[in-house]
Design brief:
There is one protein chain. By secondary structure, this protein is α/β, with parallel strands linked by helices. The protein folds into 3 domains: 168 residues, Rossmann fold (3-Layer(aba) Sandwich); 164 residues, TPP-binding domain (Rossmann fold, 3-Layer(aba) Sandwich), CATH 3.40.50.1220; 184 residues, Rossmann fold, CATH 3.40.50. Helices cover 36% and strands 17% of the residues. It is built from 19 helices and 20 strands. The strands form 4 sheets. The chain has a 6-stranded parallel β-sheet with strand order 3-2-4-5-7-6, with helices on both faces. Strand 19, helix 19 and strand 20 form a beta-alpha-beta unit. Helix 1 crosses helix 2, helix 3 runs parallel beside helix 4 and helix 3 crosses helix 14. The N terminus is likely disordered. Bound molecules: thiamine diphosphate. Thiamine diphosphate (TPP) binds next to helix 15 and helix 17. Belongs to the TPP enzyme family. One of its GO terms (molecular function) is acetolactate synthase activity. It is an enzyme of class 2 (transferase).
Length: 551
């Protein structure tokens, strides 16, 4: 009996885990089932949480990771022991390098079978020890709710990232109190008086300041406020690699992407600016071109991140502000600075370069083989303002960086760890979260087949992304590297592809094969019609020449 005399309700630990997730606001979980965690699946049976059954643990974990980026709350994936855990690993690596909150539940062998190499036994702490923020094993059923709350907290607190929770099969079946652990609040930081003075002085002394925004920890409103403040002050902002959209493509303050494949004038900004302010990110490997650019310790580099330890994972930093981006922006809005003419001139010069870079190619098809340029021109003209783009890794992604109008957070969802196979799962997660928005994924012929099977998940749950596959019959990025280092010795990079349009149809979607450039507009129109009227996902298999680059 509890203190107030009422009999305490009891449930299995597996059910309590599900109830705790629901109490934390979790709406969706991405799973590949296993006999190791049947009790949790049983808890999901009557839960408000929607269970999305996926076809591969890599796909499930990528979807959960994308969910974390979309909502700044941990995405939730559930997989089984040994083989399932092994397949899920790629999503964890993505969540780690991309700082995405993610909680991966892994069913485990029964407690008493441990250390006997039982069927599918593995060591979660050893496997995930260096790739997750925490690895927790539920050894005492009574702690089920507490461990879920701790996992959610650990995934979101400080630098967000992946957390693994191991669930031994027998322990989750034990009956425990159904009382739920409350949500644990996460510290958000903020500007101190010292930070405020340092930033205010640095901005007032600067003739060419440049903000760089990045990371996944923005709210839509925080991003919009940031943009308004920049525009009011005539200040410029560039996007960290694969983080476009936080300051909209159309904003006069947006001066372009500074990741791999950036245009030369944008690259030069990093050395030219006299004050760099990174918000939600740090000057890491990609931005600094392998820690080459902006390495002079005398230059002024501010970083705004909630994790003080991130200072050690970047190039030179002169001042750190410990705050989440939204909280920093809240404080920034109170900073009234006199606008300098030099800022406006500098911003408008850079904006001019960005507009040249993003100038669409002709939408009218040319004679001959299909071209990605024609596809992008037609696609962009068809897009509503709030369209979203997702992609994985490969040269085909450069077309999105250059031309896709990303407006607001989150309108670009991709893998900054450069992981292939992310395009379809992330597009499925985005479409499920935002069924009324146009979700486009741009895939390579190599990239697509790493998780293209998740189109079955799209069909099963009514996700309606538009999938554009740029088929250049090769692992193009690696071929490019190969030609640079081992010219004319093509090895290990060529592909013979199936008919992806037929595959899409077999999976229950719309599919069209495009070989001639003249076919592009009609194919796009038919694909969009299938999405809007037939409520199906659509796939365009675009066969392009080998070796055609976005820039
Ligand atoms: C999971 C994974 N495996 C291998 C790589 C190495 N890799 C990077 S890009 C690339 C080729 C991508 O080929 P494709 O999807 O056809 O795109 P393209 O570069 O031709 O546009 C490879 C193999 C990677 N980044 N991720």
């Amino acid at each position: 009996m509890s203190e107030n005399g009422q009999a305490q309700m009891r449930k299995s630990a597996g059910h309590v885990i599900v109830d705790t997730l629901a109490a934390h606001g979790v709406e969706r979980t991405y799973v590949v089932p296993g006999e190791s965690y049947l009790d949790v699946l049983d808890g999901l049976h009557n839960s408000s949480i929607e269970t999305i059954v996926c076809r591969h643990e890599g796909g499930a974990t990528y979807m959960a990771e994308a969910d974390g980026k979309l909502h700044q709350r941990p995405g939730i994936a559930m997989v089984t022991r040994g083989p399932g855990a092994a397949n899920a690993h790629v999503g964890l690596h993505t969540a780690w390098q991309d700082s995405t909150p993610l909680v991966l539940f892994v069913g485990l062998i029964p407690f008493e079978h441990r250390e006997k190499e039982a069927f599918q036994e593995f060591d979660p702490k050893a496997w995930f020890g260096t790739g997750a923020k925490r690895v927790m094993i539920l050894d005492h059923a009574e702690r089920a709710s507490e461990i879920v709350a701790e996992a959610m907290f650990a995934a979101m607190s400080g630098r967000p990232g992946p957390v693994v929770v191991g669930l031994p099969e027998d322990i989750i079946q034990q009956e425990i109190s159904a009382e739920l652990h409350p949500e644990i609040p996460v510290a958000t930081g903020g500007m101190t008086v010292t930070d405020w003075k340092a930033l205010n002085t640095a901005l007032q002394e600067s003739e060419k300041p440049l903000f760089v925004f990045g990371g996944n920890d923005w709210s839509h409103e925080g991003a919009a406020d940031f943009t308004r403040w920049l525009e009011e002050h005539g200040l410029p902002a560039a996007a960290e690699w694969r983080c476009e959209g936080t300051v909209p493509f159309t904003s006069p303050s947006y001066v372009g992407p500074i990741g791999y494949g950036r245009p030369k004038p944008t690259y030069d900004l990093l050395e030219e600016t006299d004050l760099l302010i990174f918000v939600g990110t740090v000057p890491g490997d990609v931005i600094t071109d392998g820690f080459n650019v902006r390495q002079n310790w005398e230059k002024k580099n501010f970083i705004v991140t909630i994790d003080p330890a991130l200072r050690g994972r970047s190039g030179p930093v002169s001042h750190q502000i410990v705050a989440k981006p939204d909280v920093f922006v809240r404080d920034l809005l109170l900073m009234d600075l006199p606008v300098k003419d030099s800022w406006k001139e500098w911003t408008s010069r850079m904006r001019g370069e960005q507009e040249k870079f993003a100038q669409l190619p002709p939408a009218t098809p040319s004679a001959g083989q299909a071209k990605m340029a024609t596809m992008m021109a037609n696609l962009v003209q068809s897009l509503p303002e709030d369209a979203m783009v997702t992609f994985g890794a490969g040269e085909h992604t450069n077309w999105a960086h250059r031309y896709f109008p990303t407006n607001g957070y989150a309108s670009m969802i991709s893998a900054r760890n450069g992981s292939m196979g992310y395009s379809v799962p992330s597009a499925v997660a985005a479409s499920l979260s935002y069924p009324d928005r146009r979700v486009v994924t741009i895939a390579g012929d190599g990239e697509f087949l790493m998780n293209g099977q998740e189109l079955a998940t799209a069909a099963q749950y009514g996700a309606t992304p538009l999938v554009i596959i740029m088929d250049n019959q090769q692992y193009g990025t690696i071929r490019t590297h190969q030609e640079r280092q081992y010219p004319e010795r093509v090895s290990g990079t060529q592909l013979l592809n199936p008919d992806f349009a037929l595959m899409a149809q077999a999976f229950g979607g719309f599919g069209v094969r495009v070989e001639q450039d003249s076919e592009v507009p009609a194919a796009l129109e038919a694909a969009l019609k299938a999405i809007d009227e037939d409520k199906k996902f659509a796939l365009i298999h675009l066969i392009v020449e080998q070796g055609v680059k976005a820039y």
